[in-house]
């Protein structure tokens, strides 16, 4: 079993992280309570120790399922969750303010049935709250013993630097990790975010390693996403950002990359997801890959993919096929060609 230290810390995590966004108790949840517990058990039995959830996943049901499943194995689990997402209608029930994060942390601890979180993370940036307030609140959580380490998700390079300096100014607790969207389809973080993490002591946790399903063969060139798929649900949302994400993901160039991965998989006698995961695991800048299996069978396939060794020539070939030209950020957003 391979472990790595997370960022500039002494915390050892498995190279595979179990993402639990699909776990729920309602009829619409992709993964039932029973199957979720089976997945968690098999993940831990295989020697992996890193589980990630969030207060917003399935309305908190994901945290409850995870908490029950690991209750008798709590000491062997590096448990990560996130706060920031709306937890009510009021203006102070969201974001990264001290007021909201304090309530969010207490609620997560109750749902998880534990008295501490190993890694507590900002789920998204909050432009309305000074980063000094957020980092001071996080430092208070660590000093209270309710949180061991802190991290962030979806932060820009500038946001990471601002947070680390804010922690430094108060002699507080800095971030040790960043969760970022990263795969053969989405490599924009390589331009600025990866070097910023390396310079500021953050390990990188790569989520959506199969390109939101594109590298798993769930979507076809020129065809609308199948009814019931995640992309179909996003496409039906009234949000312009959701529509832009779906359109961007289904770009012709991304299907070209997926086709190359499929070709490589056929040549190696394996599957497209295996090739995509093996490439990602081989990236030295990635500490752990966040998997999101819906079933125990998917978990087994994903773990096998992470263990697969790609020939160096194949990795070089995939690098070339998926490398994008990244322009300087405009209004905080990268544009790729």
Tally of alpha and pi helices: 12
| Count of β-strands | 10
Shape verdict: globular
Assigned CATH architecture: Alpha-Beta Barrel
- Given this structure, which CATH class is correct? Alpha Beta
User: What count of domains describes the coordinates?
Assistant: 1
Q: CATH homologous superfamily?
A: NADP-dependent oxidoreductase domain
Specify Rg, calculated over alpha carbons: 19 Å
Return the CATH topology. TIM Barrel
Strand order of the largest sheet: 3-4-5-6-7-8-9-10
Main sheet characteristics: 8 strands, parallel, barrel
The overall pLDDT, averaged over residues, is 92
Span of the ends, CA to CA: 38 Å
Order of helices and strands: EEEHEHEHEHEHEHEHHHHEHH
As a percent range, the share of strand residues is 5-15%
Helix content: 40-55%
Structural class: alpha/beta
Poorly predicted runs: 325-337
Secondary structure elements and pairings:
Blueprint: E1 3-5, E2 12-14, E3 16-19, H1 33-45, E4 50-52, H2 61-70, E5 78-83, H3 98-112, E6 117-122, H4 131-144, E7 147-153, H5 157-169, E8 175-181, H6 193-200, E9 203-207, H7 230-235, H8 240-249, H9 252-268, H10 272-281, E10 288-291, H11 296-307, H12 312-322
Parallel strand pairs: 3-4, 3-10, 4-5, 5-6, 6-7, 7-8, 8-9, 9-10
Antiparallel strand pairs: 1-2
């Amino acid at each position: 079993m391979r472990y790595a230290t997370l960022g500039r810390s002494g915390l050892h995590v498995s190279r595979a992280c179990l993402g639990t966004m699909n776990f729920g108790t309602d009829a619409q949840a992709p993964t039932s309570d029973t199957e979720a517990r089976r997945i968690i058990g098999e993940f831990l039995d295989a020697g992996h120790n890193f589980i990630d959830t969030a207060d917003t996943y399935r309305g908190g049901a994901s945290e409850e399922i995870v908490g029950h499943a690991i209750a008798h194995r709590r000491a062997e689990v590096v448990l990560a969750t996130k706060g920031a997402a709306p937890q009510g209608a009021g203006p102070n029930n969201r974001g990264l303010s001290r007021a909201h994060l304090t309530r969010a942390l207490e609620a997560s601890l109750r749902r998880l049935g534990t008295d501490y979180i190993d890694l507590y993370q900002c789920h998204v940036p909050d432009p309305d709250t000074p980063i000094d307030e957020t980092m001071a609140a996080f430092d208070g959580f660590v000093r209270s013993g309710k949180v061991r380490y802190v991290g962030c998700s979806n932060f820009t390079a500038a946001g990471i630097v601002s947070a680390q300096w804010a922690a430094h100014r108060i002699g507080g607790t800095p971030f040790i990790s960043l969760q970022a969207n990263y795969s053969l389809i989405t490599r924009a973080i390589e331009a600025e975010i990866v070097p910023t993490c390396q310079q500021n002591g953050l390990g990188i946790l790569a989520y959506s390693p199969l390109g939101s399903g594109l590298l798993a063969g769930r979507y076809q060139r020129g065809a609308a996403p199948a009814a019931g798929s995640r992309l179909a649900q996003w496409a039906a949302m009234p949000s312009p950002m959701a529509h832009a994400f779906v359109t961007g993901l289904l770009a012709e160039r991304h299907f070209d990359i997926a086709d190359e991965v499929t070709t490589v998989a056929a040549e190696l006698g394996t599957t497209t997801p295996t090739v995509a995961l093996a490439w990602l695991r081989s990236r030295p800048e990635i500490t752990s890959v966040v998997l999101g299996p819906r079933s125990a069978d998917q978990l087994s396939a994903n773990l096998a993919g992470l263990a697969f060794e790609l020939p160096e020539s194949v990795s070089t070939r995939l690098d070339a096929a998926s490398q994008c030209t990244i322009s300087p950020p405009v209004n905080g957003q990268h544009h790729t060609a």
